[in-house]
Amino acid sequence: MEDVELEKVALDFQSLTEVAKSVLHSELSRRDLTPPAEIAANHANEIAESEALKPVMIRRYRDLTEASIAKSVVESAGIDCILADHNMVRLDWFYSNLVGGIKLLVPERCRRRNPTAGRKYTREI
Predict the structure, then answer these.
(1) Are 6 and 36 in contact (CB under 8 A)?
(2) Cα(100)–Cα(66) distance, integer angstroms
(3) Residue 96 buriedness (CB in 10 A; 0-12 / 13-18 / 19+)
C-alpha cells in the first residue's frame, strides 16, 4: 500500500477496529508519516478553509452600473468580490430578469466578518 492510500485510511481512523488502529499507527510510524490524529485534524482544517472561500451572494442588481458601483465599494473595504452573470446582462439588459440579475459574490469568511458590506450605498432589485 502506498503512503497516500495509508493517509486516506487514516482520515477515517475512528471507524477502524482497535486491531486495525494499532496496525495503521505502527505502519505510519514505520514509514515516518504523520500520525492519524494529525492527518484528520489537517483534513478538517482544509475542509473548513475551502468552505470559507466558497462564494456566497450578498446582493442582486438589475443594472450593470449599480452592480459595478457596489463591487467597487466592497473592494474598497478590502473585501474580495466578483460579479456573476454580468456578461449575460451586458449582452442585453432584458436578460437580467432571465438570469435573476447580476449577483455580487463574496467569500463566505468575508460575509461572516462583514454581513452588511455593499448594502449602504446601493439599492437591490
Answers:
(1) no
(2) 15
(3) buried
> 124 pLDDT band (50/70/90 cuts)?
low
CB atoms within 10 A of CB 4: 8
Residue 28's φ and ψ, nearest 5 degrees, are -65, -40
The total of other beta-carbon atoms located within 10 Å of residue 78's CB is 9
**Residue 69 contacts residue 12 (beta carbons within 8 Å):** no
d(CA 107, CA 81): 7
What does the block give as the cell for 41?
A: 485534524
CA–chain centroid gap for 124, Å, is 24
3-state helix, strand, coil in the chain (%, to 5): 60, 15, 30
CA distance 6 to 2: 6
Angle between helical axes of 36-52 and 3-11 (0-180°, round to 10): 80
The predicted model scores a pTM of 0.56
